[in-house]
Amino acid sequence: DLPFGGLAGSPRVTADAQVLIETADSSPPWGGNKPDNSIWHEMGHYWWLQIYARFVPGIPGPDTNHGGYDNGSTTDSLQEGFAEFTSCLTAEHYGDPRAYMYRWGGHNTNLELDMQLWGPFGAAHDPNDPDGDLAHFTTFDPSAEEFAVAGLLWDLHDGGDLRFDNVRETKARGVISTQIQTEDVVSLTDVEIYRFFTRHPSTLKGLYDLLGGALPTDGDGDGVSDVGEIFISHGAFADVAVRNLKHDPGEAIGPSGSRRLPTRPVRDAKPPLAQAYLVVRIVSARGVPDMTGATIRVDMRFAEPFDYYDYKDEGPLTANRVYFVMPTNFYPVTAFITVEVPGLGRSAPLEITAQEYWELFAGAVEAGRDYLLEHTFVLGG
Q1: Would you give the DSSP letter of residue 243?
Q2: Considering only Cβ atoms within 10 Å of each terminal Cβ, which end of the chain, N or C, has fewer?
Q3: Are 169 and 180 in contact (CB under 8 A)?
Q4: Distance between CA atoms of 194 and 129, rounded to whole angstroms?
Q5: Which DSSP state fits 176?
Q6: What letters, b where the CB count within 10 A reaches 16 and e where it falls short, cover 180-201?
Q7: Which of the two residues, 311 and 39, has the higher pLDDT score?
């Protein structure tokens, strides 16, 4: 028996499973994964093995680890999202006030944002496609599905209070659903959430069926359960009636289910997006700057009515390539990025919207580049 910090109300677990973290894998070439995306994430997989006794392969195929939306089912993303959610719970357990900021690849991803299962889409997508077949729809990061699952689990836990003036997460009718305003009013403990997993759902649809049956509450009386509204907010619905990336009347909540088959043992770390890098150059009126102590700051500002998502992030600037991922252009958001070096001052901000970011990303993919933007920051400018 090994102690597990009392997480999920269980003071001890039996060590009948193991997750190996090799030295090379705990700090991959892109770096900056500790502790969220290496140690605590892998402990999440260990916790899954305590509940399920094995990893569950997804049916139908393909079933690629971190394949996300390109896979035949949500099984893999459910397992990875479970591990990321467990990592956030661990951060919360240790008092992190922003436990929903998931660190991976040297970059923080805000899981509090309602990411959709299909991930961010680029300029080639035309939501007003007259024939409705979404022929131009392009997902640049299908593996974002697992972060959408992690965020969905976090929303089931957090009660929708973003700790910013007690603002409730709300999206007006027409944003993600054509029939209702979606809200996050659910607040389940880690114990309550994990108890649903002890019934071994293998897909998001399976999890929704369990939750929907046990928690039918419809607090705002709009005909959709409070749990269902969280699933809709993350794109977990069958977009078949109109195919407009919005939840329409008659569209079932939760993707199609699947059944369990023997284990699939190999699970790798989620790789970074090859094009999601800024090439940073710094100049100063005082000559070539000494980069010792340099800091890069990101101020993410959302236009109304989503300004309750505003957040800031910062970290050391140790190389001229910086991994940086914008939220999906589902949101009207602008990033203000500045660089500061002690004694030499701060630069003017680089401003970039989500729409611009994903257009640049699409261009980088088409050109075969391993970065999306070069920018020179002028200190004191």
Answers
A1: -
A2: N
A3: no
A4: 41
A5: S
A6: bbbbbbbebebeebbbbbeeeb
A7: 311
Which H/E stretch holds residue 362?
A: helix 354-367
Residue with tokens 């289910």: 257
Note the pLDDT tens digit of each residue in 109-162.
Answer: 999 999 999 887 654 445 555 444 444 455 567 888 999 999 999 999 987 655
CB atoms within 10 A of CB 335: 20
> Where does residue 99 rank: exposed (0-12), middle (13-18), buried (19+ CB within 10 A)?
buried
Residue 135 near residue 124 (C-beta atoms within 8 A)? no
247: exposed, middle or buried (Cβ count in 10 Å: 0-12, 13-18, 19+):
buried
Is residue 25 scored above 70 in pLDDT? no
Q: Which of 249, 231, 116, 236 is nearest to 182 (CA)?
A: 231
The C-alpha atoms of residue 108 and residue 34 are separated, in whole angstroms, by 11
Q: Are strands 373-379 and 277-284 parallel, antiparallel or unpaired?
A: parallel
pLDDT digits (tens, 9 = 90+) for 201-242: 999 999 999 998 899 999 999 999 999 999 999 999 888 777
Single-letter residue type at 80: E
Residue 62: cis peptide before it, omega within 30 degrees of 0: yes
Which pair of structure tokens corresponds to residue 203?
A: 């897909």
Q: DSSP E strands: which ranges in the chain?
A: 2-3, 12-13, 101-104, 107-110, 170-171, 182-183, 277-284, 295-302, 311-316, 321-323, 333-341, 345-346, 350-353, 373-379
Alpha helix positions (H), 4-40: 23-26
Is 97 in contact with 111 (CB distance < 8 Å)? Answer: no
CA angle 71, 77, 81 (to 5 degrees): 170
Helix (H) or strand (E) holding 210: helix 204-214
**Per-residue tokens: 12:** 């001890």
Q: Which tens digit of pLDDT belongs to each residue from 294-309?
A: 999 999 999 999 999 9
As a residue count, the chain comes to 381
Question: 181 pLDDT exceeds 60?
Answer: yes
Rounded to an integer, what distance in angstroms lies between the CA atom of residue 53 and that of residue 62?
23
**Residues contacting 296, CB < 8 A, separation 6+:** 280, 314, 315, 316, 317, 322, 337, 338, 339
Note the pLDDT of residue 241. Answer: 77
